[in-house]
């Protein structure tokens, strides 16, 4: 089980909650998951959903709660949202 540092905000989406649950239970103990860490670039601060650190590098994850990917290719994607409209 991976180590988790930080916590999700109260209004976290279902997808963010499920992703954290999955990462925590499926990644080995050598992995560290930072939850919504502040990343600074000059005066701008961003908060990606997760940063996963490994012995080999890191992965930054931003979770999107899309309902269905209708179609996708290397140049574009059509996504159906919860309101059943396409984005």
From TrEMBL:
Protein name (database record): Nuclease-related domain-containing protein
Organism superkingdom: Bacteria
InterPro entries (alphabetical): NERD
Classification via Pfam families: NERD (PF08378)
Residues annotated as domain NERD: 11-87
Protein species of origin: Thermanaerothrix solaris
């Amino acid at each position: 089980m991976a180590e988790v540092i930080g916590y999700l905000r109260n209004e976290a989406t279902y997808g963010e909650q499920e992703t954290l649950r999955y990462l925590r239970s499926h990644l080995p103990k050598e992995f560290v998951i930072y939850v919504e860490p502040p990343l600074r670039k000059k005066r701008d601060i961003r908060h990606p959903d997760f940063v996963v650190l490994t012995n080999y590098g890191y992965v930054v994850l931003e979770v999107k709660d899309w309902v269905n990917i209708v179609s996708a290719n290397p140049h574009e994607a059509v996504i159906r949202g919860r309101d059943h409209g396409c984005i």
